[in-house]
UniProtKB/TrEMBL annotation:
This is Cytochrome. InterPro entries: Cyt_P450_B (IPR002397), Cyt_P450_sf (IPR036396). It comes from Streptomyces longwoodensis. Residues 1-12 have a biased composition (Low complexity). It comes from the Bacteria. Belongs to the cytochrome P450 family. Residues 1-22 are annotated as: Disordered. Gene3D superfamilies: Cytochrome P450. GO terms for molecular function: heme binding; iron ion binding; monooxygenase activity; oxidoreductase activity, acting on paired donors, with incorporation or reduction of molecular oxygen. PANTHER family: CYTOCHROME P450 YJIB-RELATED, P450, PUTATIVE (EUROFUNG)-RELATED.
Amino acid sequence: MSDTAASPSGAATPPPGCPAHSRAVPLGGLEYQQTPSQLYRTLRREHGAVAPVLLDNDIPAWLVLGYPEVSFVTSHDELFARDSRRWNQWPHIPPDWPLLPFVGHQPSVLFTEGAEHQRRAGVITHALEGVDQFELARECQLIAEQLIGRFAGSGQAELMSGYAHALPARAVLWMCGMEQGGADTERLVDDLRISLDAGEGDDPVAAYGRVGERIMQLVKDKRDRPGPDVTSRMLLDPAGLTDEEVVQDLISVIAAAQQPTGNWIGNTLRLLLTDERFAVNVSGGRVSVGDALNEVLWLDTPTQNFIGRWAVRDTQLGGRLIREGDCVVLGLAAANTDPQIWPESHVGAENSAHLSFSNGEHRCPYPAPLLADVMARTAVETLMEHLPDLVLGVEPEELTWRPSIWMRGLTSLPVEFTPAVR
């Protein structure tokens, strides 16, 4: 899942001014994981807009909490770049480090820079622009109805695994040109889940390997028989990507569409089922599903923090000295609720200036956010249409969040409803 052999060597000990020397706060095993907003408030109060933190194994980094500061980092690639081989901490990273899949350099668009990034990202953008949003909405509705049909007669369901994550996984594979409903697609959907969000007894490394093999086969098939899909458009793009480049970038597209969109759906359903503003008003038409989706991106964004950027040279950020090669973690959730932009603690969910899709050259490529919105909106609206008396199956305070400072998603979302008559 990662390529650490090419990682550069750095200083044997953290350099002066490194987060390790200034009351750094551990980001692993936090008691704040259920309510991360408490952590962000504490860090902001004690450290300001840029806080020294410790990743797993006490690896130092900087967490950027301020909205202006996150915007600055993501807009200045000449100062904060994406190639993780710059990191000055590679000598201290063990081979089994939990975050290696996210920071180990890979030959994908995620780690490219400059003209190469523009080339690779341009291919993805052009391929996604070819997706008909009305056709995608129809396909998502069909997928939603198939998934709902599996549990509609029982009167109860667990929506995170059985619906929220399953729908975008199937939808993005359809966009990439895979046939729906076959055993091959179902196995790939399951391997995607394991590789991105492994449960007890799962082998994410083996699952990721199978994902790569299946996507490579898809690329070979589309090279021989192109069709009206994202994979074929990437292969036929004048930029001339190799099959391996297309495989790597397709996996990035699929992963970015599947887990964050699944958590966006789940977080929105939670809001609709637990917040009186929505529980009372959505059915009456006074508050739209779109309002709930947008509010979630401000207050419960699926990607809480993103690792990361690496300082190209010594520079100042938020009053801190960031050394060349330091790792900078983008605090997207903290930035979205920055009191500097919401001084009265009221987040204006009616606007969409949040950073949930990041910002700058490496933000989610247009039109990916629009396609994710189609998936999430169709999933929520179709569920509510088919199960209009849907209610939470437990008390709201019994819902728990996955123990992650990176993703914001529920461990489960049990619901009850009147069984549908077949």
